[in-house]
Design goal:
The chain is an all-alpha fold. The chain has a domain of 62 residues. 29% of the residues lie in helices and 0% in strands. It is elongated. Bound molecules: heme C (HEC) (5 copies).
Length: 201
């Protein structure tokens, strides 16, 4: 698949930019792979002849979460990817790879978030949510597997000036949440830490 980058650095468009990324250059995310193009092509030939175990990276490196964090480091992210690398989250990682941005933000999809946001169960079904003054209570929501309600009151990264509502009547309606996950239309109010338009590391 990496061959869709032509050796002279030209690339074939992959799909629509995700919401917020329309003004970015391809090279903002796609770093060049080490080695000259000729070395990479030689390595590719070696792979084709069975002399190499893995196909080489021709032209570009895969885009890692580190690239995203170069522009999106949020000091106060309540679900930072770095936490979920820890061994104690092995089981949870199998349910949802919350240690990688691309699990939820597939680039070139044109979508803000690539899933329906109902993966909270992977970590919060056993976490013994404390009895907050909300109606219905958290334990009741968990018992009835109402994972569709979580994002109606919470923003996942906690990066907005948002006060969680206390009742489902006051919460955002489910359809607006799905629309937000699709188009990124604003939902939770002012951002606390906006992205930087250039890589900072
Ligand atoms: C916001 C970051 C970002 C920007 C900007 C971006 N890409 Fe990507 N691109 C990704 C990610 C993430 C992937 C999928 C994971 C991977 O292959 O590393 C990807 C995958 C690709 C692939 C497929 C590579 C493969 O191995 O399947 C191509 C081709 C591609 N991008 C081309 C482009 C082009 C052309 C542009 C500019 C118009 C561009 N990208 C801009 C992040 C970005
Ligand atoms: C070169 C800097 C840069 C890189 C690299 C980058 N982004 Fe962005 N991103 C931005 C900017 C600028 C915006 C629009 C402003 C904003 O939303 O704060 C944005 C917007 C977004 C949004 C939508 C924000 C919203 O509220 O609508 C998401 C989600 C996002 N980026 C995720 C990612 C992911 C995942 C990666 C890695 C594949 C990535 N970004 C790589 C700069 C970057
Ligand atoms: C397990 C799923 C998941 C993972 C992993 C994830 N996100 Fe998100 N992200 C979401 C959801 C859901 C939203 C929409 C709710 C919101 O706006 O907070 C979102 C919103 C965003 C936004 C817009 C709100 C803001 O904080 O500015 C940005 C930017 C963003 N994510 C970047 C990232 C980056 C960068 C990574 C990796 C370091 C990442 N996300 C990892 C689920 C995820
Ligand atoms: C990969 C595991 C994981 C997933 C998936 C996950 N969380 Fe969490 N969440 C945590 C951990 C760990 C904490 C921190 C708990 C603590 O400090 O006691 C946390 C904290 C929180 C908090 C408290 C934040 C604060 O301000 O302190 C809220 C609210 C929350 N999660 C909601 C959600 C929602 C909603 C989803 C689904 C969209 C979700 N979580 C998915 C692991 C996860
Ligand atoms: C009706 C709105 C509402 C819904 C629905 C909701 N929450 Fe909450 N949640 C809150 C409020 C309000 C708080 C307390 C926030 C504060 O401390 O100010 C909270 C707190 C939390 C906390 C932090 C608890 C602690 O230990 O302090 C977690 C984790 C959490 N919610 C997860 C979830 C998950 C997972 C779901 C989906 C099953 C969910 N919430 C559904 C409103 C809601």
């Amino acid at each position: 698949m990496l061959f869709s980058f032509l050796p002279d650095g030209q690339v074939l468009a992959k799909g629509p930019a995700n919401p917020g990324h329309g003004a970015l250059e391809c090279a903002d995310c796609h770093d060049s792979a080490p080695g000259t193009v000729r070395q990479q092509v030689q390595a590719a030939v070696a792979f084709g002849l069975g002399l190499r175990e893995a196909p080489p990276l021709v032209g570009r490196l895969p885009v890692s979460s580190g690239v995203c964090l170069d522009c999106h480091e949020r000091e106060r992210d309540v679900h930072p990817t770095r936490d979920f690398v820890e061994p104690k989250y092995l089981d949870e990682r199998e349910e949802i790879a919350a240690h990688e941005c691309l699990t939820c933000h597939k680039e070139h999809s044109g979508r803000h978030v690539a899933n329906t946001g109902q993966y909270c169960y992977a970590c919060h079904q056993n976490q013994g949510l404390i009895e907050n003054p909300i109606q219905p209570t958290h334990p009741a929501l968990v018992a009835s597997e109402r994972w569709d309600t979580c994002l109606r009151c919470h923003d996942y990264h906690g990066n907005h000036e948002w006060v969680e509502p206390r009742t489902l009547e006051d919460a955002i309606d489910g359809r607006s949440v799905l629309r937000h996950l699709d188009s990124g239309a604003p939902l939770y109010g002012e951002k606390i830490e906006p992205a930087s338009s250039g890589r900072t590391r």
